[in-house]
């Protein structure tokens, strides 16, 4: 009887794993790494809102200045030490988002065509959508504890 119960429990646990509600690929990050990624994400959202607001006024100089910091120079801050822990596909999606903002800033300056910029923004936001559909972040508790100990802190 006990054996049967044990097997039933194992089967229940296995099917619970197969039926995970959130099926997106999990990225296990330390608290600091997660904080870096999510801080960048909030900057992307805030910047996108700023761009839309400037665009509604057809103020293309402001569009350029809001888009510029979301471009590839944003990556120098955090991505360096995240490269080792994040999947290549994820890094590529991130990089193509930053390149799209570079292009958007360049075009806002050289073409100054709000309709063109609006199309570009809509197109580049497909990358936000695609990446969010594919990945979720969970905290790697053990690595986070190591990170909290100064002796293990490498920078
Ligand atoms: C390379 C992948 C990727 C791209 C591209 C991407 N994100 Fe994210 N974003 C994530 C992941 C992963 C999370 C965490 C999701 C989770 O754990 O459920 C996230 C979370 C967020 C959050 C929540 C932040 C918080 O404080 O919890 C916002 C807002 C966000 N992204 C905005 C954006 C916007 C806007 C864009 C496009 C301009 C974008 N992201 C592009 C991967 C990406």
Q: What key phrases describe this protein's structure?
A:
155 residues; mainly alpha; two-stranded parallel ribbon; 7 helices; 6% strand
How would you describe this protein?
By secondary structure, this protein is mainly α. It has a domain at 36-133. The chain has seven helices and two strands, in the order αβαααααβα. It has helices at residues 2-18, 31-56, 60-67, 75-82, 88-110, 114-134, 141-148, and strands at residues 25-29, 135-139. It has a two-stranded parallel ribbon with strand order 1-2. Helix 3 (60-67) packs antiparallel against helix 5 (88-110). The radius of gyration is 21 Å and the shape is elongated. The protein starts with a helix and ends in a 7-residue tail after the last helix. The mean pLDDT is 88. Bound molecules: heme C. Residues 38, 41-42, 44-45, 48, 90, 93-94, 97, 125, 127-128, 131-132, 135-137 line the site of heme C.
């Amino acid at each position: 009887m006990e054996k049967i119960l044990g097997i039933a429990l194992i089967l229940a646990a296995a099917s619970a794993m197969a039926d995970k509600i959130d099926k997106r690929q999990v990225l296990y990050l330390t608290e600091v790494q997660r904080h870096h990624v999510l801080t960048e994400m909030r900057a992307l959202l805030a910047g996108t809102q700023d761009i839309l607001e400037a665009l509604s006024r057809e103020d293309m100089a402001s569009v350029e200045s809001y888009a510029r910091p979301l471009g590839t120079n944003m990556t120098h801050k955090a991505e360096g030490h995240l490269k080792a822990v994040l999947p290549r596909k994820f890094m590529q999606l991130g990089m193509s988002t930053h390149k799209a903002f570079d292009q958007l800033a360049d075009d806002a300056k050289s073409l100054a065509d709000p309709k063109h910029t609006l199309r570009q923004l809509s197109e580049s936001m497909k990358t936000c959508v695609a990446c969010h559909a594919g990945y979720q972040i969970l905290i790697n508790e053990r690595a986070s504890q190591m990170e909290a100990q100064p002796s293990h802190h490498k920078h």
